[in-house]
Amino acid sequence: ERHTARRHSVAVIPGDGIGSEVVPAAVAAVDAVAAVHGFTVRWTEYPWGSDHYRRHGRMMAVDGLDLLSRHDAILLGAVGTPDIPDDVTLWGLLIPIRRQFDQYVNLRPVRSMPGVRGPLRDANDIDLVIVRENVEGEYSEIGGRFHRGRPEEMAIQEAVFTRAGVARVAGYAARLASERRGGLTSATKSNGIIHTMPFWDEVVAETVAASPGVALRKVLIDALAAELVLRPERFDVIVASNLFGDILSDLASALTGSIGLAASANLNPERKHPSLFEPVHGSAPDIAGKGIANPVGQIWSAALMLRHLGEETAAQALLDAVDAALAAGVLTPDLGGNATTGDFVSAVVTTITATA
Ligand code: ATP
Ligand code: MG
Description:
Layout: E1 7-15, H1 19-37, E2 40-45, H2 50-56, H3 64-69, E3 73-78, H4 86-100, E4 105-111, E5 127-133, E6 143-146, E7 154-157, H5 163-179, E8 183-188, H6 196-209, E9 215-220, H7 221-230, E10 237-240, H8 242-254, E11 263-267, E12 275-279, H9 296-308, H10 312-327, H11 341-354
Parallel strand pairs: 1-2, 1-3, 3-12, 5-10, 8-9, 8-10
Antiparallel strand pairs: 4-5, 4-11, 6-7, 11-12
Adenosine-5'-triphosphate is lined by residues 18, 22, 78, 80, 259-260, 281-284, 286-287, 293-294, 297, 332, 334.
């Protein structure tokens, strides 16, 4: 069923471990906000992940991509367990989805949240978004190992940047910056990586020049990493290649206090294909089944999904309700409290219903 203005069809993959605890929490929160804001979400659950792999030898159904392509968006919990290698999880589910649906933007919003203490003493006003190029760049399959076992043994890994690929991610980042505070930082290393990075700089600069009101600053990745720790509140939007964006995303999400808070989106901005929304954390086997997982990263990812589906006011209401719950001290153990996943969602749903 395709998307009509006020009815959205969403594929849900709870996955493994705490995925199956935080996903129902996010679904409940979205249903509450949808009821208040006059739209409905039709959820279709797909039981894919490690159990599916153990039973069928694949992370998802044979026609999984085809099934997913019929939905407006995909909400994912976490896939992976300690006994299954990471590359099975990645290549069996996440990478095929990312490629098939041309999800070339990986979005990682990072902000300070009320009632939550991060590792930095004075950083209380972080509000930035990392836009990571998600399908090309350093993570290519071109290269190999040569002269194995000989003194001249070597390994070569090629990075591939295309004009179209850099321009579209830079264009997305520039539009996002113009809707926010107008600041765009581009991560580079053109002093050391002399072919691909000057090309990245050139295409980013050309693309951003077409966006009035956006101030572009290009910063070497090493200096940028240091600045993110020392002055994170200075950043608005950061655009980075696949590898640099991967590293900066983890650094930035660590600044806010718990990995349980961090959200992400894998976007096909043109909406030609469904986009995927998932928390940054994994299946967390050490706390799975205890009902104490922090659902904020998953709920925030669902809010990114609502925004992508055009439900901007509902998305904001959801985030406001999360802030209200945190500010009221409803904190899961990872944030130093003793609230359960259920307590947190109840607080969010109560706020949403009360402000209706
Ligand atoms: P995976 O391989 O699935 O990524 P992982 O063990 O590498 O799993 P996470 O699952 O993200 O990584 O867990 C890292 C640590 O953070 C664990 O100690 C886990 O309990 C904790 N953690 C992760 N997510 C949450 C959450 N939502 N709430 C509370 N703690 C969490
Ligand atoms: Mg992990």
